[in-house]
Design a protein that fits this description.
CATH architecture of the largest domain: 2-Layer Sandwich
Distance between the termini: 82 Å
Bound molecules: adenosine monophosphate
CATH class of the largest domain: Alpha Beta
Length: about 600
């Protein structure tokens, strides 16, 4: 195979690499014949690095980094101070660093890069050729920063990342186009180790489109392990939970997928004291409730966003290791009103789908077009601190959209274009992805023309172009590696909050828009009245002055809808006057024209 493109599932718990060989997607196994590489990395003091099982074997004695995917593209302020028993710290400027022994720190990208290097080495050994190109999967809910970090990790591992594919899309691909009818709707429910995604996809004439996606970048089997460990420890669970306890929780959890009861045992937990407790499947199911409820609300949202009811789906595909839990399968059948399809290998189907997509790109698989959607709206902050959406959430990518903006004040020389991501009406409640300053020659309010265009490529990378139309000077902002100054909220919370705050957000928008309109209208009306144009009509003047006074009063009060009504009234009562002014101006021009 010459210059192959491999497909990689860079998972929270396990990773895998695959390729299409003679028309079939296969996963490539390591020397021991294992297809899954645990996403665990050990960084030795002398620079040696071990990945996968070799790293996990050291776990009892040395610090080993696991689940680093949870921190990809996140800022220090928005993550906790601990990851799988290791300390997480701020390496400066919000960069996340994981303590990996002896005071040394590694970034989540470095950890992922080591996993990718190991997968690259497996592929090179099996394919007996150098591997330089890859398709990597990411949770559909990964935002710009998280996608950018994944791409960078690939580059650090010496791989050209040809495409980032949403994990549910990969799962649907591996489920098989041949099993789906000409037009089918698929829900993919993916509950893995650290992330949860649910996507509604539609296949039409060989083209896959992700209609909607929802999820939580911090929800998965790790949380189940932690909940179980904390339940077993009871009052002793304060602070960091011992990694041995977490490992035992994971083992017991898996055993309970088969058995009704298991024994939780950690020998010599504290000195001579051992930890031992009988755990029933019912106990685990009780602990699962809040986690499943969280997942259920994502499912309802994805269905709502897709515009389809559960009964309109053709199949519900389950992927991710945690879907082996019987209670999860029961829960999914309740939400979607049908038995989910569990024919997919929960741990391998995403890597197989990535391999198929890699095959499509390298031409070894008949072309299947893959369309993804943006998980959150993208826009810029406009006057009054409002969020102006340029690409709405769940828009199919790649896509391009733009809008024209102007200066708000007379003599303004530049405009700050703040690129935002999020669902809230006020920009300050959303996340800032980056910022550019566009300068233009000063002129009166409303004269400058600044075109802002957003291009989202198939990997979900955003390029923002801001152009001063008068000079044609472009400013380009690439939001791939740009520092992302996001707030503490997770993507999940962002969407939830936008729903919870919908009413007050709308009121804030109405208020801000009315204030802007008032700021524009009041000086204009005052100028006209000052010139004494309507002197002949004292009654009309009195009415206008009265409404003007009301508008000015309300501008200083927090009364959005009243201000809106007053501004509309001002518009109405000045309508006749405005028309006369236009007529007069026209008449004046006409006269001048005649004189000339
Ligand atoms: P993934 O990220 O898809 O590789 O999923 C890994 C997660 O699945 C981990 O949290 C595992 O503990 C969990 N898992 C794997 N096998 C089982 C099982 N038999 N029962 C419950 N959870 C499992």
């Amino acid at each position: 195979m010459k210059d192959p493109i491999v497909g990689i599932d860079l998972g929270t718990t396990n990773s895998a690499v695959g390729v299409v060989d003679s028309g079939f997607p296969i996963l490539l196994a390591d020397r021991d014949g294992r297809r899954l590489v645990p996403s665990a990395v050990y960084f030795g003091e002398d620079g040696e690095v071990e990945v996968g099982r070799a790293a996990l074997r050291r776990r009892a004695i040395d610090p080993v980094v696991t689940s680093a995917k949870r921190l990809m593209g996140r800022r220090a302020g928005e993550v906790g101070s601990e990851l799988g028993g290791l300390a997480v710290r701020d390496a400066g400027l919000g960069v996340v660093e994981i303590e990996c022994g002896g005071g040394r720190g590694v970034t989540p990208e470095q950890v992922s890069a080591e996993i990718l290097k190991a997968l690259k080495a497996i592929a090179e050994e099996r394919l007996e050729t150098e591997v330089k190109r890859a398709v990597i999967t990411v949770p559909a809910y990964f935002n710009e920063a998280q996608r950018g970090a994944t791409k960078r990790a690939g580059e650090m591992a010496g791989l050209k990342v040809e495409r980032l594919v949403a994990e549910p899309t990969a799962a649907a691909l591996s489920y098989g186009l041949d099993r789906l009818g000409e037009s089918s709707r698929v829900a993919v429910y993916d509950l893995g180790g650290g992330t949860f995604d649910v996507s509604i996809l539609e296949l039409r004439e060989g083209v896959f489109e992700v209609l909607a996606t929802a999820g939580n970048t911090a929800l998965g089997g790790d949380d189940i392990d932690r909940a179980l460990a904390e339940w077993v420890l009871g009052d002793e669970a304060a602070g960091v939970v011992d990694s041995r306890v977490l490992e035992e929780a994971c083992r017991v959890k898996c055993e309970l997928s088969e058995a009704d009861e298991a024994v939780f045992r950690v020998p010599f937990y504290e000195g001579k004291r051992s930890l031992e407790k009988h755990v029933g499947r019912v106990d685990l199911e009780r602990l699962l409730e809040p986690i499943l409820e969280d997942a259920a609300s994502c499912c309802r949202r994805a269905l709502g966003d897709s515009g389809h009811g559960a009964e309109e789906l053709d199949v519900v595909v389950m992927v991710g290791g945690s879907t082996r839990i019987p209670a999860v399968q029961r829960h999914v059948s309740e939400i979607f009103g049908r038995e989910p399809d569990i024919s997919q290998h929960p741990d391998e189907s995403i890597a197989l789908g990535a391999a198929i997509q890699a095959g499509v790109l390298s031409g070894t698989v008949q072309k299947v077009l893959l369309l993804d959607v943006t998980p959150l709206s993208l826009g810029i902050e406009t006057l009054g601190g409002l969020m102006n959406v340029i690409i709405p959430r769940n828009t199919t990518i790649p896509c391009k959209a733009g809008e024209m903006f102007t200066n708000a004040r007379d003599g303004q020389e530049s405009m700050r274009v703040r690129v935002m991501q999020g669902e809230r009406e006020l920009a300050r409640d959303n996340w800032e992805l980056g910022c550019v300053e566009v300068s233009f020659s000063p002129g009166p309010r409303g004269q400058a023309r600044v075109g802002v265009q957003f291009s989202l490529d198939e990997n979900g990378m955003l390029e923002v172009l801001a152009r001063d139309v008068a000079t044609g000077v472009d400013m380009v902002l690439e939001i791939d590696s740009a520092a992302v100054d996001v707030s503490d909220e997770s993507v999940e919370r962002m969407v939830d909050e936008s729903v919870a705050h919908a009413r007050e957000d709308m009121a804030a928008r109405v208020g801000a828009e009315a204030r802007l309109k008032a700021e524009e209208l009041v000086p204009a009306v005052e100028a006209v009245l000052g010139e004494g144009v309507s002197e002949g009509d004292a009654e009309e003047r009195a009415v206008i002055e009265e409404v003007l006074r009301k508008v000015k009063e309300l501008m200083h009060a927090e009364a959005g809808s009243e201000l809106k009504a007053a501004v509309e009234e001002l518009d109405r009562v000045t309508e006749a006057l405005a028309a006369r002014l236009v007529e007069e101006a026209l008449g004046l021009q006409l006269e001048r024209g005649l004189e000339e």
